[in-house]
Amino acid sequence: MTLSWTCQCRHGAARAGTLHTAHGDVATPVFMPVGTAGTVKAMTADAVRATGASIVLGNTYHLMLRPGAERAGRLGGLHKMMDWHGPILTDSGGFQVMSLSKLRKMDKDGVTFQSHINGERFRLTPERSIEIQHLLDADVTMCFDECIHFPAPHEEAARAMRLSMQWAARSRAAFVPREGYGLFGIQQGSTFENLRAESARALTDIGFEGYAIGGLAVGEGQEEMFRTLDFSVPMLPETHPRYLMGVGTPGDLIGAVRRGVDMFDCVIPTRSGRTGRAYTSRGVANMRNAKNAEDTGPLDPECDCPACTRHSLGYLNHLFKAGEMLGPMLLTWHNIRYYQNLMARLRAAILAGRFDEEAAAIQAGWAAPQEIAA
User: Fold this and answer.
1) Does residue 145 have an active-site annotation?
2) Catalytic entry in 83, 265, 300, 356
3) What is the pTM of this model?
4) First to last CA, the chain
5) Which one in 94, 130, 159, 346 has a CA-CA gap of 20 to 30 Å to 65?
6) Hey, what CATH topology would domain 4-266 get?
């Protein structure tokens, strides 16, 4: 039996469900911490587990460069390498290929690019992307696709989407079915409704264990993203998990869950943790702000992470001002814990039939008077 998803409850379009994988079950809606190169930056695997995270993301592009897919396979795959015994989703490398526009040459068969590390040349095709993800032992494998920049004219968005659908069919043919493992297709089409519909039809005809919404959070802004999700999400099968790639802020997550999305990933909580930016029940705080220097209270009185229960805001301010690595470690832990708590609250609210009330209460907390990061 391949990877599957069951729905426990719906409240409006919002869904609470369970993703069943080879390495365990995942309650949805879920946020996946990003472990780009086989590690969630500034975190041990035990620390990631302690945040409540049940699934993490790995990056095909970065891992194929270092340590290399074949070497990763010889080392036991990502689960063993990372000491992460839960599920892992790997992206296909398509987003990174977009960001390497000056170092790549693309054709209908795939992409040839230079490593941003040492200039070495690599070739990535749908088949090779699937093979790499197999070697990494990803529970959830993503189709290889072309993600384009925003804004894009309709003609360019159509070309990239149709090429991605060809690559999706090739990805499906290359994928090796195993019990508890699955392949997700990726809907493309920028912000154009007719292209999103064409993409959804093509993916549904091929058939996947899950469906992702790609090509968003690339500069279009939250309002345009939500407008696109309003018509894009209902195009995807209700019986399968829906994954919004590379999103986002806490406000993005609430809005997307409201529209029927089940899975998310983003570097925001980890990257922000390394730069002194904290997401809290009272909004976004900047650890370097001088106001915090002598504050004996916790960063977030509603959080149970070590940064909030064992240290003062003044101490966290000191760590960042002194350049101590413990600061980014503690704040990354806090941010991931905040995201996990947020998703747990949204899931509980869906099950209780009070999603809108809970979402409003969370957002009202962000509007309370506080110190906000610039």
Assistant:
1) no
2) 265
3) 0.96
4) 50
5) 159
6) TIM Barrel (3.20.20)
